[in-house]
Amino acid sequence: MDSTLATTACDSGVVALKVFANPGKIYWYDDYTLTNLVDSGFTITTPFLTQNRYYYVEYRDSICEIPQRFPMVAEVYHQPDITQFMNGVRCGPGSVTLSAYGNGMEYWYDSLIGGTLLDSGQIFNTPFVSVDTVFYVEAVHRGCASNRIPVSATIKPVPVVNSTIPSSRCDAGSVTLSATSSLGDVLWYAAPTGGSVLFTGNSYTTPPISSTTSFYAEAVFNGCTSLTRTPVVATVKTTPSITSTTPSFTCDSGNVILSASASAGSVRWYENAVGGVALVAGTSFSTFLTATKTYYVDANLNGCTTATRTPVIASVYSTPSILSTSPGKRCGPGSVLLSASASHGVINWYPNSMGGGAVGNGNQFLTPVITTNTTFWAEASYSGCLSNRVSVLAEINKNSTHSITETVCYSYTSPSGKYKFWESGVYKDTLVNSIGCDSIITINLTIPKVDTAVSIQGSELVSHASSAGYQWLNCAGGITAIGNATNRTFIPPVNGMFAVEVTQNNCVDTSRCVDVFWVGIEENASAKIHIYPNPTNNLLTIDLGKIQAEVSLILRNDLGQIIIRNNYLDIKNIELDLSEIPPGIYSLTLYTKEGNYTQNVIKK
Questions:
Q1: Strand pairing report for 82-86 and 88-91
Q2: What confidence score (pLDDT) does residue 349 get?
Q3: Which of 189-203, 393-407, 475-489, 515-529 is predicted least confidently?
Q4: What secondary structure letter does DSSP report for 23?
């Protein structure tokens, strides 16, 4: 026997069995012992079966005497099932992923019966679909196919943001934006992609912003979102400001031109601080006025207007006038005081009747130094309004001069009585002449000097004046002349205070009183005392000749005043420092037990 062929049944049914063999005889049995012959021939059809059943084939050919036996199975398979499936959904047209699971191979079709086989497997990506579409899946196992199960590919509509309303505001703050969608809700974001939802709804009020910012609207419906987010702009516009104003004026009445500038935008002019209609737009505004009036300006840019209007004053001032003037005069070159009064305002003074710069201001004006009669002009000014200039004369009168020569003793009082002089020289004095000007007097003054200095030379008083007249005076109990004491030198007869009256250059003057204390003091002529150097610069050496047990030293000036007083014990040489006393002639007296010694010392 060459081969066999068997069909199968699904769940139940008949099965065809067939063998292929060389010519011979075929017998079919339904038991292994071959006792129950069912049929003969190359093909048999089983009865209706609900499960597998074995048949046995016996083949006898014309050559072999012994028959050949072999079994054949009439198989009955259970029909497979789709045990689980999942519909697919997508937003908008495209391919939808469907799935199904069965106990066999899954096959996908476009119709319930027949149709086109589209794919196989548990996962099926549909072809492009734009509307809801039903596909069908069946499970096949060993030729047995399940009933086809419908699996839906649902196309959900994709919403779109079909309108937006941007918005704007002036300066920082919140802005309300709007958007509508074809379906579902509107979601708001701060970025074109990603980020978290800021708000859900058609109208969105932003947080405070200080610059123009784009927000993004997205439509959401049934789990589907618009393909892209739509930008909606929240515009922040800068409110302009009035950066400067220029008020103006006119005198009495006339046109006044005001001006103002803004940081941006246009400038608008009003009659009122609030409300009303703009009179004109522009950086300048002209109006005819007879009285002062305040106008107001604001700045506007893209609908943003300054919060308050700025006042700009158009003033109308009355022109002042010069009411009176007072000319001035002086004697000789110099400044002249002029004056004027005005109805109001400030008076300015000019060197010209027209133009030029002012040289002074105020009701009084002290001119610069002038040498001849000069006319100045007074002009009244009030807030830019000027009067006519009025002339005011500054008059210069001449001074007179002359000189005198005077020789006097002691001091001299000038003709005006204002000055007193004690030294010779050339001096000036001023009197008033007949025209009220200065009469300047040059005084050539000589005041002879009388030398009243007196020095002590040994036991004598000596006047320093030479070629003069002398009268020695006793200062005790009132100054009295000493008879026959008219020489330059004077030997006092007693201790006391003495002076000399000197007549020199026709002038008389008296010295100071000199204290005389040495009369009656005996000198030891035998004492060998040497004083050197004399004159001296600073250091004076006194050689006493031998050691003295006690020595007293007194140095007096030419007035008899004690300058130095020292005491010494057991000393032969004395070093006396004169560096601290001024130059002059001094009287040095030494007192010892052997006697006294006096000598003049000169300090250079």
A1: unpaired
A2: 98
A3: 515-529
A4: S
Structure tokens at 194: 């990603």
- Report percent pLDDT > 90 for the chain: 61
Tokens 């047990």 found at:
549
Task: Please give the DSSP secondary-structure letter assigned to residue 436.
Answer: S
Q: What is the pTM of this model?
A: 0.48
Confidence of residue 512 (pLDDT cuts 50, 70, 90): confident
Q: Which two tokens stand for residue 9?
A: 């049944």
Which residue matches tokens 């006697």? 595
**Residue 565 φ/ψ region, left for φ over 0, alpha for ψ in the -120 to 50 degree band, beta for the rest:** beta
CA nearest neighbour of 52 among 9, 88, 106: 9
User: Which residues are within 8 A (CB) of 506 and not within 5 positions of it... i.e. 6 or more apart?
Assistant: 409, 448
The secondary structure of 440-468 as a DSSP string is EEEEEEE-------EEEETTEEEES--SS
Walk me through the domains of the chain, giving residue ranges and CATH numbers: 3-77 (2.60.40.10), 82-156 (2.60.40.10), 161-237 (2.60.40), 242-317 (2.60.40.2470), 322-397 (2.60.40.10), 400-446 (no CATH), 454-516 (no CATH), 530-603 (2.60.40.3080)
Cα 92 to Cα 88, 130, 182, 216: the distances in Å are 12, 7, 14, 21
State the burial class of residue 547 (Cβ atoms within 10 Å of its Cβ: 0-12, 13-18, 19+).
Answer: exposed
Residue 21, pLDDT score: 72
Sheet holding 364-366, edge to edge: 322-326, 337-342, 364-366
Q: Look at the block and give the residue holding tokens 């950086």.
A: 283
Query: pLDDT class for 139, splitting at 50, 70, 90?
Result: very high
Taking the C-alpha atoms of residue 320 and residue 356, their distance in angstroms, rounded to an integer, is 20
Angle at 290 between CA 285 and CA 292, to 5 degrees: 65
More confident: 53 or 112: 112
CA distances from 40 to 13, 26, 56, 150, 478 (A): 21, 5, 11, 46, 205
Cα separation, 396 vs 376, in Å, equals: 13
pLDDT-derived band of residue 525, with 50, 70 and 90 as boundaries? Answer: very low
Distance CA 115, CA 510 (A): 166
Model confidence band, residue 66 (pLDDT cutoffs 50, 70, 90): low
Tell me the average pLDDT across 25-43.
86
Task: Give the tokens for residue 442.
Answer: 């040059």
With beta carbons less than 8 A apart as the criterion, state whether 365 and 371 touch. Answer: no
Going by C-alpha positions, the residue among 509, 498, 507, 527 that lies closest to residue 591 is 527
For residue 180, is pLDDT > 50?
A: yes
